[in-house]
Amino acid sequence: MQAVRGMNDVLPAEAARWQFVEGVIREVAAGYGYREIRPPLVEKSALFCAAIGEATDIVEKEMYSFADRGGESLSLRPEATAGCMRAGIEHGLFHNRGARLWYAGPMFRRERPQKGRYRQFHQFGVEAVGWRGPDIDAEILLLGARFFRRLGIRGLRLEINTLGGAGGESRARYRAALVDYLQKNQADLDEDSRRRLHKNPLRVLDSKNPAMAGVIAGAPQITDCLNAADEEFFSALRGLLDAAAVAYTVNPRLVRGLDYYTGPVFEFVTDSESLGAQNAVCAGGRYDGLAETLGGRPAPAAGFACGLERIIALAAAEGGGGAAPDAYLIDVGEGDGGGASDALAIAETMRDAGLAIQCNRGGGAMKKQMKRAHRSGAAFAVILAADERAAGKVTVKPMHGGEQRTVGIKDAVQIIKSEKQWP
Ligand code: HAM
After folding, report:
1. What ligand 1 atom has the least distance to the C-alpha of 78?
2. Domains contained in the chain, number
């Protein structure tokens, strides 16, 4: 028996990385006041059709849908924004107040599996519901950027665009210009695009068919069709990002594959080889109309979701290794290398404080033990020799350069914790 194609096992050897990322998610989300929500993995298909849009790849081709015994069509969730909105409306989370939500868990899309693209994949997402101004769009982008920084992922590019606000005026203007252009180029459209031309012309720009790249490149740009209010909102967001020193480029071709977006949208993309052809690691934007679409009171909202398989592949490529301890304890002298009772006690104290400590076993000179410390992949060596023993201290040595310091156990724990590294 084999697993379903595109659905992966996370084996014990990889679980440490998932746990590490999950820890960072909790820490970063809490740092911005976001609270966890866990909507079910299965929802009524009608929810996704209404939220994501009938004429999208996700709803037309990728959902795992089935008839429940009662005859109702249910689907495995292809994303969680729809479920969060549904849950928030159902339980009154947005009544006269805002809600900052986060979630992490599996999503299901029947796409063609390849490197970085799976049929069961995991997302970490945030949804901020109830705030109208661009400062919340900036907040989620800062949160995302901090998440990547915290995982040691560098070199992501942030691309932003706007699809015009919920009033729909800019979008209607753009739609007209786009339909006009696509009609003139009908001969170059593939079957999907011809079908979507009138039903949902923006989706044509989202086509993954390489043969469509030429037509798409020549299409008019929404940034030329914005009304004053949408222009102003987008420019205010750019001002906030500039002030916060968040680098971005405006990509007028960025349209996103889900219909609920209004206003600014964005993607964090990578050029790294480790994801194959997939380059979006995180994507989202504003969706001010979704609450009403789902039968709730109007509620402005913005959010994003990151693909965790992609995040983990990137973090591993940029510095990960096997699961390493936080520190390697080197014991020279007294216990002839690791057996001394004070060394055992120090290691236990550091573990009590939440650190993973690997102790040298089998003795050996300082040089030999240091070699083993390097091999363990630990970010620090904690050295216990005669001088340290006399002073009741330990020496903390960063393995990848930097100054070593002789300090008390408590301070040693603090130093190591503040540098906790990707496993
Ligand atoms: P999305 O662009 O469909 O947006 O997905 C977000 C991210 O999930 C992608 O950038 C990618 O990293 C990851 N992802 C998507 N499909 C796959 C796949 N088949 N295999 C691996 N990773 C994948 C959404 O899902 C929206 N709900 C985001 C959002 C939240 N917008 C507002 N709030």
Report:
1. 25
2. 2
Tell me, what's the pLDDT at 321? Answer: 39
User: Considering just the CA atoms, what is the radius of gyration of the chain in Å?
Assistant: 26
Distance between CA atoms of residues 234 and 252, nearest Å:
12
Q: Domain of residue 331: give its range.
A: 327-418
Nearest residue to 132 (alpha-carbon basis) of 262, 300, 290, 303: 300
* Number of Cβ within a 10 Å radius of residue 368: 14
Query: Do 277 and 382 reside in the same domain of the chain?
Result: no
| Contacts for 64 with CB less than 8 Å, ≥ 6 apart | 75, 76, 108, 110
> Any residues with Cβ below 6 Å from ligand 1, and which?
79, 81, 109, 111, 117-118, 121, 123, 125, 127, 257-258, 280-285, 287, 303-307, 309-310
32 closest CA partner among 99, 100, 97: 100
Q: Tell me what pLDDT residue 203 has.
A: 85
When pLDDT is cut at 50, 70 and 90, the band that residue 404 belongs to is very high
The pLDDT of residue 316: 84
Looking at 317, 343, 365, the residue that finishes a domain is: 317
Tell me the CA end-to-end span of the chain in Å, nearest whole number.
Answer: 31
Dihedral sign, Cα of residue 326, residue 331, residue 337, residue 342: negative
Q: Do both 60 and 152 map to the same domain?
A: yes
Residue 264 covered by a domain: yes
Average pLDDT of the residues in 48-57: 94
Which residue's C-alpha comes closest to atom 11 of ligand 1?
307
What pTM does this model have? 0.79
* Ligand 1 pocket mutation, candidates 59, 123, 129, 147, criterion most atoms within 8 A of CB: 123
Phi, psi angle pair for 382, to nearest 5°: -110, 115
Hey, which of 86, 275, 294, 310 would you mutate to test ligand 1's pocket, going by the most ligand atoms within 8 Å of its Cβ? 310
Residue 231 CA, ligand 1 centroid: distance in Å: 26
Q: Residue 393: is it exposed, middle or buried by C-beta count within 10 angstroms (0-12/13-18/19+)?
A: middle
128 with 253: CB under 8 angstroms? no
pLDDT score for 338? 45
Residue 357 within a domain: yes
The last residue of a domain, from among 289, 317, 345: 317
- The pick from 121, 274, 278 for probing ligand 1's pocket by mutation, whose C-beta has the most ligand atoms within 8 angstroms, reads 121
Gap between the Cα atoms of 100 and 129, Å rounded: 6
Q: How far is the CA of 123 from the centre of ligand 1 (A)?
A: 7
CA distance 279 to 290: 27
